[in-house]
Design brief:
254 residues; HU Protein, Chain A
Length: 254
């Protein structure tokens, strides 16, 4: 199924800014990063239909999306492989086995794999134009994570080690702020848990021990009093660097 938004101008212009490179093997000084617009939920998506000449009423779109997402969840859980214009979904069963087991390895459970389709990648490739708009004013950023247990960049494992790459990450502060600084895991509802230990504490890389009882979805927050440009200098205020997405927590066995 091809993707065709049927809009008057099929070239989408996205503003990007230069942001300092943070990975240790970076060959040049900057990456470019999209300047994202408002985050949309299903209601927000439906409300934008008329912008792209989609004449289906927003309420119908919203109800259809909600019902469709529920149906995809149930079908995937029943073992169906789902192939949609934007992404494919299927179950993943983790672990290694000798061939005589009657259940998954202890502590493991079925997982979900999602993949962007070639059709969607091609649409983005052919229809998106990037407009470079100078260097981003940098207050620090989390650019990438790596879960050492699973080698994953989109999930974290409770009780294991997490690598965090970015800019302005070194966490430190005055003694009176010691109870506030550090690396925190924050649920969408605002429940906060602190990293048990910071193993490596550098401006472009943190290595932390994830709480063993962490569950669900969590944003990563680095709270620090250090300056982005000079990590040995303390600011008069605390600075918070928050991940753009919330990461799913594995149960401690991969």
């Amino acid at each position: 199924m091809a993707i065709d938004f049927n809009v008057n101008d099929t070239t989408h212009k996205v503003v990007v800014k230069f942001t300092p490179a943070f990975l240790p093997n970076a060959k040049k000084g900057f990456y470019i990063k999209p300047v994202f617009r408002t985050e949309l939920d299903i209601h927000g998506i439906a409300s934008k239909a008329s912008v792209y000449n989609i004449t289906v009423p927003p309420k119908v779109i919203e109800e259809g999306l909600e019902a469709g997402m529920e149906l995809i969840k149930y079908l995937t859980a029943d073992g169906f492989k789902i192939k949609l214009p934007l992404f494919a979904v299927n179950l993943r069963t983790p672990g290694e086995y000798s061939g005589i087991e009657t259940h998954l390895a202890d502590g493991l459970s079925p997982d979900v794999r999602m993949q962007v389709t070639n059709e969607f990648r091609n649409y983005i490739k052919e229809h998106v134009t990037l407009v470079i708009d100078g260097i981003e004013e940098n207050n620090g950023m989390i650019g990438l994570i790596r879960d050492e247990a699973a080698g994953s960049a989109d999930s974290i494992t409770a009780g294991d080690v997490l690598d965090i790459y970015g800019i302005g990450l070194k966490t430190d502060g005055t003694p009176e702020n010691a109870h506030l600084t550090g690396v925190w895991f924050v649920t969408p509802d605002g429940i906060r848990q602190r990293a048990k230990r910071i193993i490596t504490n550098h401006p472009k890389m943190l290595k932390v021990l994830i709480p063993a009882d962490l569950q669900g979805l969590n944003y990563i927050e680095v709270v620090t009093q250090t300056s982005v440009t000079n990590p040995t200098l303390f600011l008069k205020y605390l600075r918070t660097v928050r991940s753009e997405v919330a990461y799913r927590t594995n149960d401690g066995n991969v």
